Amino acid sequence: MATVQILNTLTKELELLKPREDEGKKLSLYTCGPTVYAYAHIGNFRAYVFEDLLQRHLQERGFTVRRVMNLTDVDDKTIRGAHAAGIALGDFTRPFKEAFFEDSKALRLLPAEAYPEATDAAQIARMIAMIGTLMEKGHAYLAEDGSVYFRIASFPGYGKLARVDLENQRSSQRVASDEYDKEAVADFALWKAWVPEDGAVGWESPWGRGRPGWHIECSAMATGLLGETIDIHCGGVDNIFPHHEAEIAQCECVGAKPFVRYWMHCAHLMVEGSKMAKSAGNFFTLRDLLDKGWTGREVRYALISVHYRGALNFTMEGLGAARTALGRLDAWRERLHETAGSETAAETSDPATEGFFAALDDDLNISSALAVLFETLRESNRRMDLGDEGKLSPAQARGLLNWLARVDGVLALEPEASQSIPPEVEELVAARAAARAAKEWKKSDEIRDQIAALGWLVKDTKDGQRISKN
RNA sequence: GGCGGGGUAGCCAAGUGGUAAGGCCGGGCUCUGCAAAAGCCCCAUGCGACGGUUCGAUUCCGUCCCCCGCCUCCA
């Protein structure tokens, strides 16, 4: 059986991924989701695409993956946005939630089993219960400002994920500007007391009206839906500290069990060599790119084709490269179909193709995996170019198509289901074929123009006309 | 200052103690009435710099240079 190895941020080592005892081949996966105060940008989606690749590969390897992704729909930004728009929080976040799911679909992300929302009453109740337990155990305290804070000094394990030593932290300007009534500057909020700016946003709690802190939200949803110990928890590197560190502290102080067995973090994305920022004018949401004419699958290719732990330099040139590469794959796929014809018996023609999955077993080495894909493409094209001697057989083509179906299950880069060709176009194509047979080139060109006017593109190949949507 | 990730051909990017995958671009050829595609081939004596270890280093060790990120709520 396959052995999937991943780099665990907690240990910094490549580890064999093993389900827990008595869990069979089940794995739980928690992925930090978007804060719905704006459209998610491609940096966010880089993380989600990485998580999707992980899930798909694990499934290809026979694991049953239970994945949960949260939606943060209450925090400073969402409250500020709703206030600025003069509408209720829920009305402000709803369109962004919907957009997130649309974008996810465009990028072919597998849906999670659940998308818990921070404002959900059941989740709020769970957060309050967790905070209560932390209070009872002395891991939290109510400060004079009415907020509840986590007492970091009470948890010796704090800093184990990010390898931070609080003594050595340089205080940043952000900390300096905070005027909290905390015992220690590093203590973080579990429950934020209501302030006038919160308006109608707030929930009653044993500590008064307020709202949950960001970290407790993920802790509550993750353990609530997936159990006290989660197998894999993913996110961007920027979440390592303090977010994930805080999640560990909260969960491991509430329960006594390890919170997460394997942590995985993806690196950031840059745009045209610079940090993506609105002020730099290189900030893209998925819809920005779709508006420019790129497709979801092209963006997916661009995001997936760089190893998740390396910084990804997202460029228009890179998108162009994605488009070209996908075009080659599409053409190859069509050729394989033509060669396979109606042959159903599959011959496994190239054992090297297993290398694709073996590469992904190695901490999702996508570059090596894609290399196998393209090497297979070139080798089989070479054989389809041949005369009779050594030519790729229909059964071998079928074998490659079967393999490609498995590859698609992981990469999800197959072309959009081709639209069926309308009858009037079919007729024109047939007429053109007849004209070509008679070498009536002028007529052939006229028909090609007519077909183009209907929105279809015709290309002449060695094997006849090929029609595609323009 | 602390912690982490990087520097491999024009661009993107794997990888290994034994002489550099793959993608894009570019060049050549094939196919071709035209057009548009596509296919095949070629394209780093070189892997940030300098030392060291070694029969041999891009890969190990040391020193240094540069880039990026995090250091309290940004994937």
Summarize the structure.
By secondary structure, the protein is α/β, with parallel strands linked by helices.
Structural class: alpha/beta
**What is the highest CATH level, the class of the largest domain?**
Alpha Beta
Number of domains: 3
Q: Whole-Å distance between the termini? A: 44 Å
Low-confidence stretches: 171-178
What can you see in these coordinates?
- By secondary structure, the protein is an alpha/beta fold.
- The protein has 3 domains: 5-266, Rossmann fold, CATH 3.40.50.620; 274-411, Isoleucyl-tRNA Synthetase, Domain 1, CATH 1.10.730.10; 423-469.
- The protein is built from 15 helices and 15 strands.
- It has helices at 42-60, 76-85, 89-106, 121-136, 173-177, 214-226, 240-254, 286-291, 296-304, 316-340, 354-361, 366-385, 394-411, 423-437, 441-453; strands at residues 5-8, 13-16, 26-31, 64-69, 140-142, 148-150, 189-193, 210-212, 230-236, 260-266, 269-271, 274-275, 312-314, 456-461, 464-469.
- Strands 4-3-9-10 form a 4-stranded parallel beta sheet. It has a 4-stranded antiparallel beta sheet with strand order 5-6-7-8.
- A hairpin with a 4-residue loop joins β1 (5-8) and β2.
- α1 (42-60) crosses α13 (394-411).
- The relative contact order is 0.11.
- Residues 171-178 have low confidence and may be disordered.
- It binds one RNA strand of 75 nucleotides through α1, β9, α7, α10 and α12.
Q: Keyphrases for this structure?
A:
single chain, 470 residues, alpha/beta, four-stranded parallel beta sheet, four-stranded antiparallel beta sheet, 15 helices, 15 strands, 45% helix, RNA-binding
